[in-house]
Amino acid sequence: MFFNLSRALNESLPLDEIAEALNGLSAEDRVQQSRSLGPKDQKLLWQRCEGRIVTLEQIVPDDRVGDTVRHLGRNTLPAFKIFEKRFMRPSIDHTTLWGFNEGPTRKLVGPGYFVCRQSDQPEIGSVVIDYEMLPEQAPEGWPVIKPNEAGVSRLVYAYMHDYLRKVSEHITIGRAYRKGKESPNYFTLCRLD
After folding, report:
1. What per-residue string of b and e applies to 32-50 under the rule 16 or more CB within 10 Å gives b?
2. pLDDT score recorded for residue 2
3. Is the model's pLDDT at 151 over the cut of 80?
4. Which end of the chain is more exposed for a tag (fewer CB within 10 A), N or C?
5. Are the C-beta atoms of residues 55 and 126 closer than 8 Å to each other?
6. Is residue 175 classed as helix, strand or coil in its secondary structure?
7. Around Cβ 89, how many Cβ atoms within 10 Å?
8. How confident is the model at residue 1 (pLDDT cuts 50, 70, 90)?
9. DSSP state, 89?
10. What is the average pLDDT across 34-41?
C-alpha cells in the first residue's frame, strides 16, 4: 500500500485514518514516512496532534525493561536533521525512562542525556523529555554521562524540554521548549521494534 504522510496531512485526512495507515506500514516504510516531513509539515502535524496522548509505555514497552529502544528522528534544524533518541526503562518502576541522543554531532555536543516522564503540562504534550534531569547512571554500552550545562552541550541541551504528542503507535511528533518558552523547532520520532 502506498501512503504519503505529507499529502495526507495537507489534504486534512482525519488523524485516526493517518494513524491506521502508518500502523499498517512496514517498519522501514514508517521510518521513511516520519523522516520525510519538512518543517512546514512537522509544524502542521504538531498542531493537528494537539490533545493526542502518548504514554511512556508507547516509548518503551513495559516488557522491555533494561533494553535500549531506538527512535529514529528528523528535526527542523538547518543542519544535522537526521538523528535518533535512545530510551531505556531502567526498572519496573513505570514513572521514568532514561535516554540520550545519537547522531553525527554526539562527539562535538555530547550525548544530551535526559529523563523522560509524564508531563506536568499535558496541554503542551503528555510526555516530556527533560534535559535538566539526568539518569542515575549510564547503562552498559551507553556513552559516559556528561552535564548538559557544560561546554558545547550548553548551547544545544541546557534548560531544554521536548514535549511529545502521539501520531500513531510507533510515531510521535515533538516540539522543543527552552526555559519554558516554545521554540520553532519540531521533530518526528519513529520507534523501532
Report:
1. ebbbebeeebbbbbbebbe
2. 81
3. yes
4. N
5. yes
6. strand
7. 23
8. low
9. B
10. 97
Record the pTM. Answer: 0.95
Residue 119 and residue 129: Cα distance in Å, rounded? 9
Question: Could you say which DSSP state residue 79 is in?
Answer: S
Written as one string, the DSSP assignment of 57-74 is: HHHS-GGGBT-EEEEEEE
Sign of the dihedral defined by the CA atoms of residues 179, 180, 185, 189, in that order: positive
Is the predicted pLDDT of residue 29 greater than 90, yes or no?
A: yes
- Average pLDDT in the 178-191 region? 96
Q: Which three cell numbers stand for residue 47?
A: 498542531
C-alpha cell at 155: 548551547
- Alpha-carbon 139 to chain mean position: 19
